[in-house]
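Hi Y.,

Following your request, here is the sequence exactly as I used it, all 188 residues.
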Amino acid sequence: MKKIITSLMALSLMFSASAQDGMKGTYLLGATQDITSTGWSDIQITPSVGYFVSDNIAVGLGLSYTSNKDMTIEVLSIVSDPMDMTSTTLSPFLRYYMDDKLFFVGGFDMTSSTTTNKPAGGTETESKNSSFGINVGAGLSLMWGDRVAVEPAFMIGTSSSKSEAGGTEVDGPTGLNAGFQIGLSLRM
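Below is the corresponding structure, written out as tokens. Let me know if you'd prefer a different format.
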């Protein structure tokens, strides 16, 4: 139920537009929710702003910020020490609308995060992580009235990362992922 509520909240925040005559010069404001990579009770919304440079092509930028204070992680019934984590992601994108419904999207994500471990009675340690990913996908812009559209999309992406802790830098794994994102849009 929480996942459905989260998705509906994200739907109400996504602002975009479908390709129709006269879209050039139209702005996109809103947010997307990746409904396949977040936990059941997590909300991870990426607000974005864009601009139609032609009737079919929109360019834009998403921005996401996450902050978790005193969180713990449980793996195999072992609970970690409390930690603070902050993360910022910039996500430039390009959308091409084939017609009134079908669109293709491509972009990349640049993420920078910091995690501070706070062991009880021990010394705090800080680690930094940066990642870069490329994403492509296709979706449908399902109009609801003249200005509002629901926009589900299937996305495929790849990413790589680097971590630094205690002066040592380590290349992280390279990953390939696939998932769905959903949004609600309003033509501005």
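The domain at 2-186 is CATH 2.40.160 (Porin).

Thanks again,
Q.
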